[in-house]
Known about the structure:
The chain has helices at 100-103, 109-119, 134-152, 157-175, 183-203, 210-216, 221-232, 236-254, 259-265, 271-282, 286-293, and strands at 22-28, 36-40, 45-52, 54-59, 62-67, 71-74, 80-83, 91-97, 126-129. With 294 residues, it is an alpha+beta fold.
Amino acid sequence: MRLQINREQKEIKNHGSYGFPVLVSHERLSYFDTWEFPWHWHPEIELTLVMEGKITYQVNDSLYELKEGEGLFCNTNVLHCGHGERPLDCSYLSVTFHPRLLYGYNSSVIQNKYVNHILKSPSLASIHFVPEERWQKRVLDLMEEIRVLEQEHPRAEELQIQIALLQIWQNIFEHTEVKESGYAENGRDTERIRRIMEYIQKHYAEKITLEDLAEQIHLCRSESCRLFKRYMNESMFDYLLDYRVERSLELLRQSGLDVTQIAGQVGFTNPGYYSKIFKRKMGCTPLEYRKSRR
């Protein structure tokens, strides 16, 4: 499985419908070929509940180790990704919903008083929920309630899910503090990261230098490298290599090209180096991957 994201790293999958903008999905890291979901963002809020195993989850520059029974709030429009450690899998529930499910219509009292300031707060890009914290345990219980509702489909399923999401939001509102300072700087840095990722996604098959990437955000090479490393927890160069490997997976599965041709098509001038990076990321060689998928 591969996330459907555009050149701006925005996920383009539908999260529910216009009439009921909620998607409740049961996921496993092993569903992804790379055992990870890549950096992306979406205008919906996302709640994650770990059912089994553990996952390393990153939101902007915050890194979390989520264990069974723990959860995460991921705010709207923030960059996030997740990965595990093979061969240990992770099963988790993902609840993704548009904020308008909470407030109904623009400029409502609910939106202005209880929602907008949280959505715009850099200090609340994410919240790690643990059962040891009483109010967070209540949030986790409500997420489990949503899981059961989605499985059993009672007569008032949508109504009960919306009530549960409103109760979750009430707990977030009552137990968190919004800090407005740093919003402009945080937003500017996030936009810089997105521009670098967009450039890589568009030009990954070409020769790309660190100077090329730094030029996209009008910073010097060293400052660009520090910024990217701080937010993404990996270097720009490593991100580029990983992205090229990921783009090669579909060619290995579906095309008749040999490894040398595929390496060239995704930006590797040396097929031996491509195989080395591929094995480091995937745990097998390109030919072994092709054989296992066919």
